[in-house]
Amino acid sequence: METIQTSPASTFPRIASSWAENENEWQNDPVKTYLRKVIKAVIIDDEDHSIETLEWKIRNYCSDIEILGTFSSPMEGLDFVNSNQIDLLFLDIEMPLLSGFDLLQKIENISFDVIFTTAYDEYGIRAIKFSALDYLLKPVEIQELENAVEKCRSKKVNSTVPAQLEVLFESLQFPRNTNQKIALSTKESIELVNSRDIIYCESDNNYTTVYMEGRKKLISKTLKEFEELLVPHNFFRTHQSYLVNIDHIREYVRQDGGYLVMSNQKSVPVSRNKKEGVLKLF
Q1: pTM of the model as a whole
Q2: For position 272, which CATH number holds?
């Protein structure tokens, strides 16, 4: 018969000590504390079936979210949000009388996160991407919902949402502005920069390195995503791996297959099929 050996009693104090240390770590870390707390949420959507579907998915797959209220009337939802403290707002974009964007501009103090919901892939999505806020396309996929909620959980206590919303509203009002602000989101922070301050972007698989004067940032977006956002704001794709700000081009050199010299003195290659387009910039 096999003998089962039990751990000596001295093991348990070590386990208890380790548990206590981990517990103290959670209590002392504001981010981990935020992860543990219940997220108080509100849903505003003019379609009842969309509310019911989203509410069911939240209750079944995001157990730490407490839904304080659901509203098919944008005005009733606005009144509730203005008079109650919440952590997260699920907000439909296209609603009669008052759109989701218009509703946000009427909220007195935005101290919560926002996840937009929409049935359309075009309306307002480009502006949302500039702001680095989250959105869900209907019908909402469970994995996308979980990913968006996880981003809210992992945010630090001091939210950048008000500043991100400024970027959103600016992009909606001036869609062709050559100095559009863009939110550059990393694991550590969300930085708002003027598009004219970006010299060029370089692809790094599913990430993009954004180069500015004297510094760079690695962003978890593909170069194609940056191209879709920035080409209308005076940027040009010179190569499979590079997107440049036209205002920062200083010289085109024909040698070595052709390359651009940028304002930071860095060289950016030009692919064969992009040469004609580049020469038209001069």
Answers
A1: 0.69
A2: 2.40.50.1020
